[in-house]
Amino acid sequence: MLGQPMSMVLPGVVGFKLSGKLLDGVTATDLVLTVTQILRKHGVVGKFVEFYGAGVGEISLADRATIANMSPEYGATMGFFPVDKVTLQYLKLTGRSDETVSMIEAYLRANNMFVDYSEPQQERVYSSYLHLDLGDVVPCVSGPKRPHDRVPLKDMKDDWHSCLDSKVGFKGFAVPKETQEKVVKFLFKGEEPAELKHGSVVIAAITSCTNTSNPSVMLGAGLVAKKACELGLKVKPWVKTSLAPGSGVATKYLQESGLQKYLNEQGFNIVGYGCTTCIGNSGDLEKTVGDAITENDIVAAAVLSGNRNFEGRVHPLTRANYLASPPLVVAYAIAGTVNIDFDKEPIGVSKDGKDVYFRDIWPSNEEVAEVVQNNVLPEMFKSTYKAITTGNPVWNELAVAAEKLYSWDPTSTYIHEPPYFEGMTMDPPGPHGVKDAYCLLNFGNSITTDHISPAGSINRDSPAAKYLMERGVDSRQFNSYGSRRGNDEIMARGTFANIRILNKLLNGEVGPKTIHIPSGEKLTVFDAAMKYKSAGQDTIILAGDEYGSGSSRDWAAKGPMLLGVKAVIAKSFERIHRSNLVGMGIVPLCFKSGEDADTLGLTGHERYTIDLPSSVSDLRPGQDITVKTDTGKQFTCTVRFDTEVELAYFNHGGILQYVIRQLAAKQ
Which pLDDT belongs to residue 1? Predict the structure, then answer.
């Protein structure tokens, strides 16, 4: 990053042995969600995961890539599959020349890095070991709020009712028994009779980088749509459906197979490429649907083939969000609810009046393999890749200034000159401690980067919305935080703006607010932070396990820095987020094992002092320091600067300042 070498502690390598083969009807996504649950439970933050064993030879390269791409969700630095014949076949399929493929194979064999699963395998030494028989994987989904909360499909109905009953949390909505069967009738668009219940599916999206470049699940979704169409089943019009392929190649094989037309008939038209619903870019629900949800406090559901379903990420009005394979997304869209037992209950009624069950529209592995074999062709990859460098008319006609320096437009609400280098000198400021800081936020476990820096829609009552409206931007043009990430004013206001965030200072109230400790006022997080900053008061954050899990989002570190946060004290950090905090000059500290804010009796109403040496030479990676409070309590934490390079960044106030000083020194 920024021309800097990547520094890291030598990682442990977890050996994950795969054996057997997937059963009929089980998809790559089912395997991915199973692996994610196992690895998250095992604990692989900061580690590499290498998959090995005869079972690897039984899964396609696309399936392997789907597993590897979920590494942020299971917390690993990397998921890795050694190269074998299947890899070489994929290189040929995607247009690489025989000469190139032969050279790759020869090089890897010469360096003992090529694996042939038909030969006896040498036992390898790993830091720890896991094993999964692929025959044990069953159809499943994950949710309703985290990617590793896997639910076997056969248990889905029971799990849903358990979620309705349970207190508010990762697996609970605390819906009173007497209202759980509530039915809300309304007129869709003011015309068509419609109804919603708890668990009604209002968003069904085939989306995300993880699944939508995998031919088996994409064409599998097309086969489900085809069978449903032939039986006369159709998705209800108030279910917002969409299809965002991960590659132009996917579009070509869906069209070549003739299956895209059936997806279109079910409402899964292609809406674009890249991050859509998975990152909160599904757009508004139709007004009558949104009103029915909000006015009746319905726990509505989204089902998507994405890789992340953290609270508030997918859509503000879908409190339940389930990850599922693309074909399962189509099935749930047709069923219209997650409150269903696919084994026992029909998903619809055919055109001749007969009940249709899940098994009637689900393709066999042989059907999927045949359509993949016949329709995923090398020429599709060659033509698509060739077009990448030529762009398109809209892109090619964009006016580009000749100047080498970017000319900032002070009126732009999309791109704004950030304040990172204001007042900067050539001399590093040195380490900073924290003196009498207030607690801005007090969190529990699993605060994700989506909680810290949302990428989805901008709430109309938020500080970011106020900023935009003051500059003449209509609410229909707010777009998303992700699209406005080039504007620090908006992103600072969007920091901790997740509508589902749970801050202990609010005593159970959910939402993007906090208590300004000196005054006792309840304010938006941004307004409270600005009040502290204007008074010259530092702030810190208290947190539990897995702070910063999810996407490696740079704004989840930039935003807190702009709010004036000087340190985060947590039970544990996700690797990339911890690194990003260091990069923005924020001190990451870990409670000692067995301790946290609750066991130490910290409420967040204290003031915190963290004394650090004034010279970086007196700091070392993993050093223990004492945190003192104004109530007389003090405790020991480990400073999570993990390498000498990170200490250098901190000495300069962050990686950006470090890089600028290095570049300036060379001039």
Answer: 64
Instruction: Please name every residue paired with 52 in a beta bridge, in sequence order, or none if there are none.
Output: 17
pLDDT at 184 over 90: yes
Across all residues in the chain, what is the average pLDDT? 94
Both tokens assigned to 247: 């590659």
**Residue 162: enclosing H or E segment and its boundaries?**
helix 156-165
> Residues 491, 558: contact at Cβ < 8 Å?
yes
Q: Are 512 and 450 in contact (CB under 8 A)?
A: no
Separation CA 638–CA 415 (nearest Å) = 38
- Do the Cβ atoms of 50 and 126 come closer than 8 Å? yes
- Residue 547 gets which letter from DSSP? B
Q: What single string gives the DSSP state of each residue in 493-508?
A: HHTT--TT-B-GGGTT
Amino acid in position 149: D
428 CB-contact burial (10 Å; exposed 0-12 / middle 13-18 / buried 19+)? middle
C-beta of residue 235 within 8 angstroms of C-beta of residue 204:
yes
C-alpha distances (whole Å) from 310 to each of 27, 155, 318, 440, 600 are 23, 21, 11, 22, 28
**Kind and range of the H or E run holding 492:** helix 488-494
Q: How many CB atoms lie within 10 A of CB 109?
A: 12
Is 401 a residue whose pLDDT tops 70? yes
CB 327 within 8 A of CB 27: yes
204, β-bridge pairs:
241, 303
Q: Is 648 helix (H, G, I), strand (E, B) or coil?
A: helix
Residue of 146, 172, 127, 138 whose CA lies nearest to 41: 146
Q: What is the pLDDT of residue 400?
A: 87
Residue type, 297: D
